[in-house]
Design brief:
The chain is of the alpha+beta class. Helix content is 47%, strand content 11%.
Length: 590
C-alpha cells in the first residue's frame, strides 16, 4: 500500500507524507494487511513539535534504502500522540517492558494482533553515541519474528496480561495536606528552584495545588521559572521543559496545555505581568475559527534549514524580520478546555474581561463544532478527526465550561458541562467514556484503563472529578460529590507517596476536604469588585434566575441585588454594602 498520510487530519502525519516509507494511518486496515502478509507492524508515535521526531523523519525515515527494506518486511503505522492519546498511552505502558528511556518518537514493534514485542525511541540511520542504526534494529526484530515467533507471541501476550491487571487500589482521602507539602519541599531544588534535577518541567498541576493551599513553595517555584530561560520574555509563554537543572537549554516547543494551566496559576499567585505574557501567547495561537492550536514548534526555517530554538534567541525587533516557528493547528478538545478554564479563572481574578472573551470564543467554537452526537477529540480547519474522545476531553472541557459559566454568569456553559459529566457518569463507575475505547485497541483486547496520574496536565480522572465537584458546589446534588470522591479514592495513596505526579488529584482532594463555601453577588458595582478577585460568582438578577431554573440550586431565590455568603449551602442574610461584606470575609470559595 502506498503512503496514505497526505490527506491526514494531523499536521504531524502530513509532514511524513513525503517519506519513502509506506506509512499507514491508525486503523484496522493496516493490521489486516500485516496479518495477510504475515509481517510485524511498526507503530511509530510522535507529535508535531517534537524535535527528535523531526530529526528521525529527516535522517532515517527519508532514507530510500531503509524505507525500501521497511516496506518489504513490515507494515508501518504513523500515529500523532495528541490525536490518538489512548493509543499513545497504551503503547507507552507496553514499551516500559523494553526500555526505561521512554519518550518520543516512540517506535513500537507489534504483532498483527497489536501485541508489543520490542520498543525504543530515536534510532539514527547509522550507529552513533550508543544508538544502534535503525537497520540493525529492523534486522533484530525480523530475526526474532522469523526464528523465535513463539517467544515473540508469548512476550506480547504477557505484556497484555500485565497491562490488564493494572488497576489502582482504593484508599482513604486525606484531610491534612501538610505532610504532602512537606514531602514536596524535600524534592525542591534549593539552588535553582523547581523539583528534582534535570530535565526540569513546569509540573503545572502540582503548582496549582500548592498555590491554592497558600504554600510558599508554589510561589518560589513560579518565581524561579519566570526568571529563567524556560519563559520567553518577548512573546510570553513557557517552553515545554529545560534540559539543565538551572533551567537553561530549554526544548523550545510551547505547549497549549502548559500555558493554559500556568495563566491561571500565575494569576492566582498575583504575578500579573507573567500571567499577561502567558495570556498574550495564548491569544496568538487562537485560530481564526476560534479554537486554540495545540502547540508552537521549537524549530524555524533559517536559510532553508530547520533550526531549533533560533527564533527564541532574537529580540523583539529581530523577530519581526524572520519567519515565526509554525503552530500545530489541531484543535484538541481537552487542551482547549484547559485554556478556557485557565483564561476564565485568570480573567476573573485579575479583572481582565478580554481574557474571558477569548475563552468564550473558544468555548463557542467547541460547542458548535466538537460537541456533536459524539464528542469530537480533535479537528483542523473545521474537519473532524476520526480519533475517539477520551476521558480527558470530557473532563477538561466540562471543567473549563464550568469556570467560564462562573466568570460570565452564562448558564448555557454550565448546562453543557453538566451534560458531559452526566454522560460520563452514566457509562462508568464513577466515570466512563461515552462511545467506548478506541475501536482498534478494543478489538485487540488492548483497551486498558487510562493512566490516572497527572503529569504535565490533569488526567482524565482528575479533570472529571474536578468538574463533578464544581457541579456539586453549584447544585448541591450529592451524586456529583460522591463520584468525585470515588474517583479520587483510586489515587489517594499514590498521590500522597508521589505528589509531583498527582498534583491535579491533590487539588481535587483538598477541595473535597474544605468546607463548602460560596460568595455570590447578584448585581454589579463595588460588591462585584470585591467578589471577583476572591473567585466569587457575579451574576445579574436574570442570570441568577436562569441558573436556578436550570437546576443550579445555589441560585435558588437569589434575585435581589446583594451579596450572599454561604457555608454548607446555608447562606447568611444578604448584605448590600462593601463594609457589611468585608465583615463576613475572608472566605475562600472554590
Amino acid at each position: 500500500m502506498p503512503n496514505t498520510l497526505a490527506n491526514a487530519a494531523s499536521p504531524y502525519l502530513r509532514s511524513h507524507a513525503s517519506n519513502p516509507v509506506d506509512w499507514q494511518q491508525w486503523g484496522p486496515e493496516a493490521f489486516a494487511e500485516a496479518a495477510a502478509r504475515d509481517v510485524p507492524v511498526l507503530v511509530s508515535i510522535g507529535y508535531s513539535t517534537c524535535h527528535w521526531c523531526h530529526v528521525m523523519a529527516r535522517e532515517t525515515f527519508s532514507d530510500p534504502a531503509i524505507a525500501e527494506y521497511l516496506n518489504a518486511n513490515l507494515v508501518a503505522i504513523k500515529v500523532d500522540r495528541e490525536e490518538h492519546a489512548e493509543v499513545d498511552s497504551t503503547y507507552l505502558a507496553a514499551a516500559a517492558a523494553f526500555t526505561g528511556n521512554l519518550g518520543w518518537p516512540l517506535n513500537v514493534f507489534v504483532t498483527p494482533q497489536g501485541r508489543a514485542f520490542f520498543a525504543g525511541t530515536y534510532w539514527p540511520p547509522a550507529p552513533v553515541e550508543g544508538h544502534p542504526a535503525f537497520r540493525q534494529v529492523l534486522d533484530a526484530v525480523l530475526d526474532a519474528w522469523t526464528n523465535r515467533r513463539d517467544e515473540v507471541e508469548r512476550n506480547g501476550a504477557a505484556i497484555v496480561e500485565v497491562l490488564a491487571q493494572q488497576h489502582p487500589s482504593r484508599g482513604e482521602l486525606p484531610t491534612d495536606f501538610a505532610p504532602v507539602i512537606e514531602e514536596l519541599e524535600t524534592l525542591e531544588d534549593a539552588t535553582f528552584g523547581g523539583f528534582g534535577t534535570a530535565p526540569k518541567f513546569p509540573v503545572s498541576p502540582v503548582l496549582r495545588f500548592l498555590v491554592e493551599r497558600g504554600a510558599g513553595l508554589g510561589v518560589r517555584t513560579l518565581d524561579a521559572m519566570a526568571a529563567s530561560p524556560l519563559r520567553d520574555p518577548v512573546d510570553g509563554g513557557f517552553f515545554r521543559y529545560s534540559t539543565k537543572r538551572d533551567w537553561h537549554d530549554p526544548h523550545y516547543e510551547r505547549m497549549l496545555y502548559d500555558n493554559a494551566q500556568l495563566v491561571a496559576v500565575y494569576a492566582l499567585a498575583g504575578r500579573v505581568e507573567v500571567a499577561e505574557g502567558v495570556a498574550n501567547w495564548l491569544a496568538s495561537v487562537q485560530l481564526a475559527e476560534g479554537g486554540f492550536a495545540s502547540a508552537q514548534d521549537s524549530e524555524s526555517t533559517v536559510d532553508g534549514r530547520r533550526v531549533e530554538g533560533f527564533y527564541y534567541t532574537l529580540d523583539a525587533a529581530s523577530r519581526q524580520r524572520v519567519e515565526k516557528p509554525p503552530v500545530d493547528e489541531k484543535v484538541l478538545t481537552g487542551w482547549n478546555g484547559l485554556a478556557i478554564e485557565g483564561l476564565a479563572i485568570a480573567g476573573g481574578v485579575l479583572g481582565r474581561r478580554e481574557w474571558i472573551a477569548t475563552a468564550q470564543r473558544a468555548a463557542d467554537f467547541l460547542l458548535e463544532h466538537h460537541v456533536k452526537e459524539r464528542l469530537i477529540r480533535t479537528s483542523i480547519g473545521g474537519v473532524a478527526s476520526s480519533a475517539h474522545a477520551t476521558l480527558e476531553d470530557f473532563g477538561m472541557l466540562a471543567a473549563g465550561l464550568l469556570q467560564l459559566a462562573i466568570a460570565t454568569g452564562e448558564v448555557r456553559y454550565a448546562t453543557a458541562a453538566r451534560t458531559l459529566v452526566d454522560d460520563s457518569m452514566a457509562v462508568g463507575d464513577p466515570f466512563g467514556v461515552p462511545g467506548g475505547a478506541d475501536p482498534v485497541l478494543a478489538s485487540q483486547g488492548l483497551a486498558v484503563e487510562a493512566d490516572p496520574s497527572d503529569g504535565a496536565h490533569p488526567s482524565g480522572l482528575s479533570a472529571m472529578a474536578s468538574a463533578a465537584h464544581t457541579l456539586y458546589l453549584l447544585t448541591s446534588h450529592e451524586p456529583y460529590r460522591a463520584a468525585a470522591r470515588a474517583a479520587m479514592a483510586r489515587v489517594a495513596e499514590p498521590a500522597q507517596r508521589h505528589p509531583v505526579s498527582l498534583g491535579a488529584a491533590l487539588t481535587v482532594m483538598a477541595r473535597l476536604a474544605d468546607p463548602v463555601r460560596h460568595l455570590v453577588v447578584v448585581g454589579g458595582g463595588e460588591l462585584a469588585d470585591v467578589a471577583r478577585p476572591r473567585g466569587g460568582i457575579v451574576v445579574t438578577p436574570d442570570q441568577s434566575r436562569a441558573f436556578a431554573e436550570a437546576g443550579f440550586e445555589l441560585f435558588e431565590g437569589r434575585t435581589a441585588e446583594a451579596a450572599y455568603v454561604c457555608e454548607d449551602f446555608v447562606c447568611r442574610l444578604p448584605v448590600t454594602t462593601v463594609s457589611e461584606l468585608a465583615a463576613l470575609l475572608p472566605v475562600e470559595p472554590h
